[in-house]
Write a structure and sequence with these properties.
Layout (H helix, E strand, L loop, with lengths): L1 H4 L14 H16 L5 H4 L8
């Protein structure tokens, strides 16, 4: 990012559209690993409690 701000950005790394699903899956897997639980955060969120 610093290089890009200085006007020295590298070439774009474009991929063919047919590779996008695999790239998306890889990015999601990396984010899940960073989250530490390996699951979809929305699926594992606790259910809201009714006020009593």
């Amino acid at each position: 990012m610093t290089a890009a701000m200085g006007g020295n950005a590298g070439p774009l790394r474009l991929h063919p559209r047919e590779r996008w699903p695999a790239l998306r899956d890889a990015a999601r897997a990396a984010l899940r690993a960073l989250a530490g639980n390996g699951t979809d955060p929305a699926a594992s969120a606790p259910a809201s409690k009714d006020s009593q």
